[in-house]
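Hi U.,

Before I forget, here's the chain from the pilot set. I'm dumping it here mostly so it's searchable later in email.
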Amino acid sequence: MPPTLGVGLIGHAFMGAAHSHAWRTAPRFFDLPLAPELTVLVGRDATRVAEAAGTLGWSSTETDWRRLLERDDVDLVDICTPGDTHAEMAIAALEAGKHVLCEKPLANTVAEAEAMAAAAERAAASGVRAMVGFTYRRVPAIAFARQLVADGRLGEIRHVRAQYLQDWIADPAAPMSWRLQKEKAGSGALGDIGAHVVDLTQFITGQLLTGVSALLETFVKKRPLPASHGKLAGVGGEGMGEVTVDDAAVFLGRFTGGALATFEATRFALGRKNAIRIEVNGSAGSLAFDFEDMNVLHFYDGAEPASTAGFRRIVVTEPEHPYVGAWWPAGHGLGYEHGFTHQVVDLVTALAAGEQPTPSFADGLQVQRVLAAVERSAAENSAFTEIRTTAAEGEN
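Structure:
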């Protein structure tokens, strides 16, 4: 039996449930060097967290996340809470000698993200590791796209197009939630979903964004206060609350290799449920991906003769494709939850090897700087705004 890895999870709503599924499932399909144990689940309400622990498979519960820092049976703290709590929790856990997995975006501000990245760097000197949860990197088609670019199949990258389109708050009657409050979420569509496509494009290309020109818009300024909550939205009740984040973000960018980029993130695209669309055009080829058809990658090989050239539809379910060999026979597609399982696999493997898992907190900080630059640009009539990068970043 491999050594155990005691996990303490903070939060048991949408992301908490997804992470719980991943911790349960990973050792059942992958040969892991450490055996994750679902040791303790943390939630503020004792009754609700106890019910969630029973449903999600956790051995014990706490109502104060600080108790995780004192427990010898917790080796890793998994943070699935709103962004305004990330910095305090992650820094305290790292200083207590606990590994950390923190949901994205890393923080609500660049200053918080800088403090978290600095804490992670200090902790790494003692073998304590930290990773930010940009889970879509672990979709096999996305990982394969990264592989094609790294192998030179696209040549010099010239264009990057990225969209993340949802519609879950397009109805003005959809109620307020913490995701619509800047003090808790940091930003709206920009940080909630735009952060994902920023990370994905940097991951696939192996390059960083160096500057942006942006527009932000809030279409619905006030919403009903919630009577109940669901996985994302909920049911409206009495009274109105003020929306203090963006509903949509559109921005142009430039990458370190000179490529031009366009980004769009919105939760008002009626009919689009979770459309993450990435297209990359290079001097030797192109690729295109849409998460609503997540097991497929479209690839254009510019070396083929014009008479037969065209986008090739690759069903990314072969054992040779990233992560896929541990699952089902070819053609039996994977789903949303599998990315979280692959995240656990990569994290546990890196921890056992004493290596830095990716994306690191430094990578999360770089994405936070992009988000901040988008907000600054939008506030200054879309002025092109440069983004600071450092040598420690870009290892994504």
